[in-house]
Design a protein that fits this description.
By secondary structure, the chain is mainly alpha-helical. 94% of the residues lie in helices and 0% in strands. Residues 132-166 form a coiled coil.
């Protein structure tokens, strides 16, 4: 179960799409930090599990080798007992010959037993070798992913620092713009122009009022002349004479 669990974790982490995870993360840097921790811890767990699996595999291989070696030794013992029985039988000692033949049979039975054990464990060893190979491959893949994550993290941190520096420069330039003496000068110039326009307006208004006064004087003069001519008419004095007078 432990091997299946660690193998499942390796498969899950190997299939993880780092770019997709970063795109969906509210804080990519925190996501990367967490992923680095997850991968680091998982790699440590995987190395421990794989080491244990390899250790168990080597024990199985050792047991298999011992079974094969024991089978060979019992085969040699059976052969030796059989030869001894043949020698005794040729010498006419059938009783001892039968004893050695029985020993040969016992040795052959032990040989068959060891061979069966060796044969039974062989598929397990083959399967375990495949598992170990896959675990090693997955572990190497996780280590590559971890390097990719660390590279991404370094890139992201560098970009963040660059963006921060750019923002500081932008804010500094913006603050300079606010205190820019040329912009103050522009505002002062605009104020002077408004004052000049006001003065010009007052002058124009004053000029218009003076013209109106002179026009009023001309109107008064005309009324005076009318009154004089009316008086002349009433007195019987000719208009021409009134004009001359």
């Amino acid at each position: 179960m432990a091997k299946q669990s660690i193998f499942g974790r390796i498969s899950t982490l190997m299939k993880a799409n780092i770019n997709a995870l970063l795109d969906s993360a509210e804080d990519p840097q925190k996501m990367l930090d967490q992923l680095v921790r997850d991968y680091t811890n998982s790699i440590a767990d995987a190395e421990s599990a794989i080491a244990e699996t390899i250790g168990n595999l080597r024990l199985l291989e050792r047991d298999h080798q011992e079974d094969v070696q024991a089978a060979a030794e019992w085969g040699n013992k059976a052969l030796a007992a059989s030869r001894k029985a043949d020698e005794l039988r040729k010498a006419g000692n059938t009783t001892d010959a039968d004893k050695f033949d029985n020993l040969a049979k016992i040795a052959l039975q032990r040989q068959i037993s060891e061979e069966n054990e060796a044969r039974a464990i062989a598929p397990t060893i083959a399967t375990q070798n495949e598992v170990v190979d896959k675990l090693k491959e997955g572990l190497n893949g996780m280590k590559q992913k971890l390097e990719q994550l660390r590279s991404k993290r370094s890139e992201l941190l560098a970009r963040a620092k660059t963006a921060e520096a750019q923002n500081k420069v932008h804010d500094a330039v913006k603050s300079i713009d606010v205190l820019d003496p040329t912009s103050e000068l522009g505002r002062f110039e605009d104020k002077v122009r408004r004052q000049e326009a006001l003065a010009a307006g007052k002058q124009e208004l004053a000029a218009s009022s003076l013209d109106a006064q002179f026009n009023a004087l001309e109107d008064v003069g005309e009324l005076t002349e009318v009154e004089a001519r009316l008086a002349a008419l009433k007195s019987g004095t000719p208009v021409q004479a009134a004009i001359e007078n």
